[in-house]
Structures are given as structure tokens and as C-alpha cells.
Design goal:
There is one protein chain. This protein is mainly alpha-helical. It has one domain. It has four helices and no strands. It starts with a helix and ends in a 5-residue tail after the last helix.
């Protein structure tokens, strides 16, 4: 049974890290190049980023429980544990902090937020969301590398 939990650990690390990189690095940019309307592309990309956030939270939940069950309190001294915690906190900040602000700005705009007086605020908060996502992607690389070092 321990091998099953360990394999699930590896799969979830791959799913989380791979999903972040594929959506942010491949799919979203392709959407904005291929979609006829930037608003449509933005809506689809936003839905994918949101879905990936929930997947990430689910992965973080399992991975943290796995690490504590496997290593006990010494898990709190492992870099992998804290990388997962920081990644989860970044997701929470994005999903429950930045995304509601972006949605509110969109709702306040008469038509397209990018053609309104709210444009500068939207661009600034979108930049914050992008930086949070990029940090999470960088940490995901660390998670993959650290998880492969036999600290499972």
C-alpha cells in the first residue's frame, strides 16, 4: 500500500507542475494568438487558470498529508514540505485575493475593461496575478527536483 501512496505522490507532483507549465506556457499564449477575440481568449484562459488552481490545492492537500504521514513532524523540516506550503499560499492569494479584484474590475467596466478608465488598475492587478503564477511555476520546478531526491 505504501508504494501506491508513493506513486500517487509522484503522479500529483507531475500533474501539478506539468499543468502549471502547460497552461501558462503553452495553452494560454496559444489561445491569445488563435482566438478571434481577446475577451473570449481571456475568459477561457481564466477558466483554465482557475481550474488549475483547484487542482493545485488538491495536490497540495494530498502531498502535505502524505509527507506528514510518511515522515511525522520531521516533515516540517524538509524543503519539499515548505515549497508545497508556499505554492498553496500563492494559489490562495491568487484565487481569493487577486482574482476577485480582477472580476470586480471587469464587472464595473461598461463593456471591455481594457477600454475603460479601470484599465490601469486591471493591468496592475493582472501583473500581480502573473507574478504570483510565475513564482508558483518556478517553485514547481523545485518541487519536481526535490521530490526526485529520495525525500518521498
Amino acid at each position: 500500500m505504501s508504494r501506491l501512496f508513493s506513486a500517487l505522490h509522484d503522479l500529483l507532483v507531475a500533474l501539478w507542475a506539468g499543468g502549471l507549465w502547460v497552461i501558462g506556457g503553452l495553452v494560454a499564449p496559444l489561445l491569445f494568438r488563435a482566438a478571434p477575440d481577446r475577451q473570449i481568449a481571456g475568459g477561457i484562459a481564466g477558466s483554465m487558470f482557475s481550474l488549475m488552481a483547484w487542482v493545485g490545492l488538491g495536490c497540495a492537500f494530498y502531498l502535505l498529508i502524505y509527507r506528514v504521514a510518511r515522515f511525522g513532524l520531521p516533515a516540517l523540516k524538509q524543503a519539499v514540505f515548505w515549497v508545497i506550503v508556499v505554492m498553496a499560499l500563492l494559489i490562495l492569494a491568487g484565487q481569493f485575493g487577486v482574482q476577485p479584484l480582477l472580476a470586480s474590475l471587469k464587472a464595473q467596466a461598461p463593456r471591455d475593461v481594457m477600454e475603460s478608465v479601470l484599465r490601469d488598475r486591471f493591468v496592475a492587478w493582472h501583473g500581480v496575478a502573473s507574478v504570483l503564477y510565475l513564482i508558483e511555476c518556478a517553485l514547481a520546478v523545485g518541487l519536481v527536483l526535490l521530490s526526485g531526491r529520495g525525500t518521498k
